Amino acid sequence: MEKNKKIYVAGHRGMVGSAVCRVLENEGYTNIIGKTSKELDLRDSIAVKEFFEKEKPDVVIDAAARVGGILANNDYPYQFLMENMQIQNNLIDAALKQDIQKFIFLGSSCIYPKFAPQPLKEEYLLTDTLEPTNEWYAIAKITGVKACQAIRKQFGKDFVSLMPTNLYGTHDNFDLQTSHVLPAMIRKFHEAKLNGNTPVELWGSGTPMREFLFVDDMAKSVVFALENVLPEHLYNVGTGEDLTIKELAETIQKVVGHTGNIIWDSSKPDGTPRKLMDISKMHNLGWKHQIELQEGIEKTYAWFLENIENFKQVKL
Ligand SMILES: NC(=O)C1=CN([C@@H]2O[C@H](COP(=O)(O)OP(=O)(O)OC[C@H]3O[C@@H](n4cnc5c(N)ncnc54)[C@H](OP(=O)(O)O)[C@@H]3O)[C@@H](O)[C@H]2O)C=CC1
Ligand SMILES: C[C@H]1O[C@H](OP(=O)(O)OP(=O)(O)OC[C@H]2O[C@@H](n3cnc4c(=O)[nH]c(N)nc43)[C@H](O)[C@@H]2O)[C@@H](O)[C@@H](O)C1=O
């Protein structure tokens, strides 16, 4: 990919979008564009069409979405279904009509069935029912994957979908109602430590297993997909290793230095019991993560401390 190609990163201020911009800049790309949701509401099909006609990007990276943890997904099903479909439909359709050759769509590991065999292979898509806490978001993401696959099949364009495992890192969302588990734990343990090591309340049973990928590694997989023509339409992206939520809590507790108790609130949902990604397809092509969980948590906690006055808190 020539370094002066115009690359539109949708969601360029988000956790993933901002990391993608940083990696692109480090790699020498000179023509990266982005708009905030206030400047361009991607749910507005006319505004998106006009933006594409004016800007004529060469490449689109879709890192814009309504994103949240287990509770936000469960409590706001309409927003997670409808906003995500609107955003991705408008981007994908405008990209097709503007004859854009390369489009990278980001989905999520929750597209796979709740009780699929582990590790999750790409071909398990649509083989069984979804996890109820996030089926709305998952269905939206599945329609995005299928739209990109349909464009490849019908028009022969390089529209590809990457399915990230649970992500975390700098610029994460630290709102305790809407965030994912890892940033929530960092904030909860930190605040409890400052309050004299008071007990920390976590959700569910602690037994579900999750796989975590640091956002810089995710961004590098996006740039890898940009710079290579991937032969298939769908690729899992992760580390290939998971741990229980209880083990995650103990790891974060040590990094933060909290010495109080942990209480498990069983009124909150566990979600899917396990969703470990099979990442052999990406490995065979040459991409592999570089940052292990311990290092990634330390980097994220350091970033949280540096940004303690104004870290992001997404409200719904
Ligand atoms: N975080 C995770 O654990 C995972 C994320 N993913 C996927 O990765 C992608 C990026 O997620 P992540 O970076 O974590 O999410 P963030 O919430 O950090 O960023 C999402 C971005 O989307 C933009 N956006 C949301 N709604 C609109 C809208 N109506 N119009 C324009 N822009 C909008 C926001 O822009 P603005 O800031 O300007 O409002 C925001 O910057 C998403 O597709 C997500 O589904 C997949 C698996 C796991
Ligand atoms: C990326 C993925 O993220 C979402 O799925 P999820 O993995 O279930 O999300 P999560 O990170 O919020 O929780 C992981 C586990 O952790 C437990 N847990 C404990 N204590 C806290 C806690 O304090 N906050 C949160 N959020 N979870 C907690 C929680 O009960 C659950 O068992 C999808 O909706 C969807 O958006 C998606 O694709």
Blueprint of the fold:
Layout: E1 7-10, H1 15-26, E2 32-33, H2 45-55, E3 59-62, H3 70-75, H4 77-97, E4 102-106, H5 135-155, E5 158-164, E6 166-168, H6 181-194, E7 200-203, E8 209-210, E9 212-214, H7 215-227, E10 234-237, E11 243-244, H8 245-256, E12 262-265, H9 280-285, H10 293-306
Parallel strand pairs: 1-2, 1-3, 3-4, 4-5, 5-10, 6-9, 7-12
Antiparallel strand pairs: 8-11
Helix pairs in contact: 1-7, 2-4, 4-5, 6-8, 6-10, 8-10
NADPH dihydro-nicotinamide-adenine-dinucleotide phosphate is lined by residues 11, 13-17, 36-37, 41-43, 63-67, 87, 106, 108, 164, 166-167, 173, 180, 314.
Binding site for NADP(+): 11-17, 106-109, 141, 164-167, 180
Enzyme class: oxidoreductase
Active site: 137
Can I get a quick summary?
This protein has 316 residues and is of the alpha/beta class. The chain has helices at residues 15-26, 45-55, 70-75, 77-97, 135-155, 181-194, 215-227, 245-256, 280-285, 293-306, and strands at 7-10, 32-33, 59-62, 102-106, 158-164, 166-168, 200-203, 209-210, 212-214, 234-237, 243-244, 262-265. The chain has a domain at 7-173 and 211-242 and 276-291: Rossmann fold.
